[in-house]
Amino acid sequence: MPDEMKPCPQCKSPYGYATNDTQYACPECGHEWTPTEQSNEPSGLVVLDSNGNELQNGDSVIVIKNLPVKGSPIPIKAGTKVKNIRLTEGDHNVDCKIPGFGALALKSEFLKKA
Questions:
Q1: pLDDT exceeds cutoff 60 at 69
Q2: Rounded to whole angstroms, what are the CA distances from 89 to 8, 10, 94, 109?
Q3: pTM for the full model?
Q4: Class for domain 47-113, per CATH?
Q5: Which are the contacts of 15, defined by CB distance < 8 A and separation ≥ 6?
Q6: CA distance 97 to 44
Q7: For 93-102, what is the mean pLDDT?
Q8: What percent of the chain has pLDDT over 70?
Q9: Quick one: pLDDT at residue 49?
Q10: Could you tell me if 25 and 34 are in contact, meaning their C-beta atoms sit under 8 angstroms apart?
Q11: Domain assignments of the chain as residue spans, ordered by start
Q12: Is the CATH number of domain 1-41 2.20.25.10?
């Protein structure tokens, strides 16, 4: 029987314990799960664009307004298409590479799905 504790996928409590070789239980919410069940659940990260469409890693997006870039005399122009985005946690929740600017983190509220 494994001695390690696993976080509960339902309430995120760090005290999930093994009840047998394949089952875990949470003492706080009572949820029971198997480790394979936990890995099949979708991640909690949901990022929406300016129109409310859900973004995914690898999507292409379009910038909807001119965005000033710190240290650059020119902004990112509205209508610029950005390919192959990566979603992250935090305020600037989209990582991408923009030709002429390099790697940047942008807010999804200034983007729309292409």
A1: yes
A2: 20, 19, 8, 14
A3: 0.61
A4: mainly beta
A5: 5, 8, 26, 27, 28
A6: 24
A7: 92
A8: 90
A9: 94
A10: no
A11: 1-41, 47-113
A12: yes
Q: Which residue type, as a one-letter code, is found at position 112? A: K
Three-state SS annotation for the chain: CCCCCECCCCCCCCCEEECCCCCEECCCCCCEECHHHHHHCCCCCCEECCCCCEECCCCCEEECCCECCCCCCCCECCCCEECCCEECCCCCCEEEEECCCEEEEECHHHEEEC
Each residue of 23-60: pLDDT tens digit?
A: 888 888 888 888 775 444 455 788 999 999 999 999 99
Which strand ranges, in their side-by-side order, compose the sheet holding 32-33?
Answer: 17-18, 24-25, 32-33
Q: Which two tokens stand for residue 110?
A: 């200034």
101 or 35, greater pLDDT: 101
Is 95 within 8 Å of 105 (Cβ atoms)? yes
> Do the domains 1-41 and 47-113 sit in the same CATH topology, yes or no?
no
